Amino acid sequence: AILDRDRTLRLSVDIRLQLRAAEILERYVKEAGSPGGAAVLLDPANGDLLASVSYPWPQRFPIEIADEEEHRGELTDRARYGIYPPGSTFKLVTAMTALRQDPNIVRKTYVCQLLPDGRVGNRVRGWGRAIRDDLTVHSPHGIVDMQKGISRSCNAYFAQLAVYDVGPEPLLEMAQKLGISVAQPNTPEQLKDALPQASYGQGQVTATPFQMTRVAATLAAGGRMPEGRWILDESNPRRAEPEPILDESLAKVITRSMRLVVSEGTAAAYVGGVEPPMAGKTGTAEVKDKPSHSWFVGFAPYQARGRRLAFGVIVENGGYGGKVAARAAGEMVRDAARLGLIQSAGPGEAEQTPTLQEAP
Prior knowledge:
- By secondary structure, the protein is α+β, with helices and mostly antiparallel strands.
- It has helices spanning 15-32, 72-75, 78-81, 91-101, 146-151, 155-166, 168-177, 188-192, 195-198, 209-220, 248-263, 268-271, 325-338; strands spanning 2-4, 7-9, 37-42, 49-55, 110-114, 120-122, 131-132, 142-144, 224-225, 243-244, 279-287, 290-300, 309-315.
- It has a five-stranded antiparallel sheet, with helices on both faces.
- Helix 1 packs antiparallel against helix 13 (325-338), helix 4 runs parallel beside helix 6 and helix 4 (91-101) crosses helix 7 (168-177).
């Protein structure tokens, strides 16, 4: 709780998790030589904000008005107000939109191949240049369905999916429900011109760490989008119930793929052994003339047993998402379990991990 003049506000923040998340984020930001970062952890069932960290923060308080310019970067709440390209974490939104239109689209495949310049990707009809995967990808993904597209984070798959099956209007509508801007101005006409790149969170797509954490929370909650809250008493008039925006069975299609990201996909080398088991999505968001932002969003535990914790971590200019942000998120999940906020599977409750069906 915090004191607000003559009354006390009851907050959802768990101070133990807040302090641990702050220590972890600071360490990974410094390790990456990054200018800053943010982490958000919330309860998907009701949107309660359990921790919200923005780094760097002021080393002393109070900050005098005359010194505000000097401390501007430290005073920015990156968790709620930091505007970033979400990179491949946005593929979750594209997948949600596609499944909402046609549940059978999960089985539709597209090709990811070796391009003449040695990069991996494909061309999209009507788009002037080839869609390429990250520079770290050296082998084409071949024939790709949605499960493989998410777990291997294939840009070529999502660009083709968005252009040939989703379209700008539905993607804009889903993004707006989640509070995410996909074009400037945020219109279907403007989005249409950049749809291949927007499908994987580049181009003009921007989001805050809180918004991307809410995407993960929506999937963890079976397609019910929580509003997000940190004031729990009657002084908070906005305590809406989570809004259903995706059928539960379709949300599970995506969360199974998110588990594969961790167990054998783009994050496996970094957080594959974390307990309780995580499900997530890496993001390596390109930034002009600077190293990419490192993203990881998801939830734990993967198996729905008791409370879940949704998370979103960004390390500015931190590079590959799995290597930096995912490791930070993994430590936060471990600490949340140690604090008793979430649980691992008990004796005799071995995790049923999905298996990636490799296309021929």
